[in-house]
Amino acid sequence: MRENKQFRRYYFSILVLVLLSLLNFSYYVSGADDPYTSGGTSGVGYYMGEYVSDTIPSSLEAGSSYPVVITFRNNGMVSWEWGVEKFGLLYQGLQSSISVDPVFSPILEGMKVATQEVSSFPFTLTPPDKPGEYELSFSMSTRKGEDRYTPFPNGFSKKITVIPKEGVSSGSVGSIIIQSTPSGALVRMGNEDKGFTPLTLPDLNPAQYEISVSHPDYSSKWTQVMVEPGAVSRVQIDLTSQEKPSVSTEHLLKYTTLGWILDNLPLIIISAVIIFLGFQVIMMDTQRIPEQHPIRRYTRPLIMFAPSADGKNRFQRGVGDRGKGNQAGENESVSGKSDAGWNKKGGKTSGSGIGGQKVIMDRSSRRGGSDSDKKPIETENSIPDIQVEDPEQESKEIEGMWGFPHSLRDRYEPLGVAGDDSYARVYKVRKKESGALRALKVGHLKQPGSEILQKETVVWRSLRHPNIVHLFRSEFLDDMTFLENEYLEGLSYKGSLHTSLCGLPKPIREQYAVSLVRDIAEGLRYAHEIGVRHYHLQTGDILITPKLRAKISGFARGRNEFGFSIKDSDVRNATAAYITPEQKNETIYGNPGRRTDIYQLGVIFYELLTGFLPYSPEAFKKSGREGLYEEYKDELILPSEIRKNLVKYDPILIRMLSRKKSGRYDYMDEFIADLDALSRPKPVE
Q: Which parts of the sequence belong to the Protein kinase domain (predicted)?
């Protein structure tokens, strides 16, 4: 009997362990390895949210705002409440052109959404001005702090169409806007269903269309609508009464002659000014318009630039007043001959005269008059009309807009400043020869680049890889050094433009971090295979494209000029976390090499995943370890100690960020293989 009871207890214990194992297995299949994973698609999880419904229209009109509501069901294992973690619906359109406000819509404070209950979240959608098809993505999420979000699995996506404002994109087409009482009625055009009211049918060819509107609770109504080019036909249907549908046509102002003038008024004014100034230039120095032509009575040339003796117009400043007698025609001297002119410094040279008198050259208009035969003479006692060049204005001409070098304007058109630091300024330019966009990096120092920098640029120009910024040209002049690089537009995120990883808010989503780091690794693998090392890899050297792809820059720096790069360069100005042990002390840790780049890539990867730099006091504090930072400053805080779902990256980052070179990956191929292995699905046993 006692043995039978022991057997039952043993059997019951085995049964409990099996049930717990099955529950744990279903949890990992449904979510991932922690409550905040984003890899699952269905099933039961700790935090789960299921899409129920939404009020987002299938088409949005450009320039309008739409308040919408999205409803999700709590199908997880815990309730959604307001606490340390704020629950809400997160908009995940990182690169979408549709403005969504707010980005994170939380549940109300004090509200509790139990398992299997639903909650609705309000948003306001503002579509862009450019028509087209766009995609919206939302998922339930938790928020810690101001901008740290952890999305749930089972997100919601919806494709919508943005139509032009009032449904008309050009003056050759029209549109029909249909409204009904009550709304939500089905609209048919001919035999084709078009949607539910209120509804805009955009960009219709001019013709007559048959529109019918039906509602399950009322009788259907129909009407014929004539669509005219550049016009909106508005149809108002009251299904609750016997009144016939009303149709009105509105011609849009922007497609009329007056509208075109108003839209192009600045261009018209600028064109008129250019034509006027061009006519003034013709009036100043030409014989095409006769002296006695009637137009000269109403038009007088505006003398904006005083001509110099060599016939060239320059910015000049007059000292003294010109006498009234100088309104006569052009005279050279009293004797009809003069050697007076301008020396190189802008002063007047000596000229011939009569009786020791000094004679000046007077250049005035060629218009005739009663005083045209008078020849002004100024003696030594009179105040001469001296003109000197303005050195300040000349300096402004040399510098140009945004400080762009005047000597490069014959080759490049400056479009703006793309970046600036203590070493150089980067301009966005257009090549005048080909029209291609480029990034022009001009050093601040007025001297030719060092020998190190010149050698590095030769190497950089030889690199050809999709994940390396292309260097087209480098020049080292006596007073200037500049590099002509490939121009990247950067990524627009949360209202800011980010051209490199340096300014991108961190941490970023896991899949984006892995994709970016793999791009960098591919570029470094190519460089390492041909014997090139970077040695100063930082987030500021990783440029990004609008499609969130990474390209390596900064292969040429030069000692004490543009930063640091090769072994002989100065690394003291780099961020401390990126300086490897071998760059600090070669005697102890050996010479820099391939594994130096691998270490610095590990720093970037660690920061993208966790938001902190490795071996930093901030990472130590976030891990929650007890004790003083000084006791652990040489020990790596594992990513999983900061975010539990990053545990799979611990082995990789331990190898990348090893203090000893022998503990790191030897080749970039080994790192890429381990990274790819994490993304491959595990075989089911």
A: 412-685
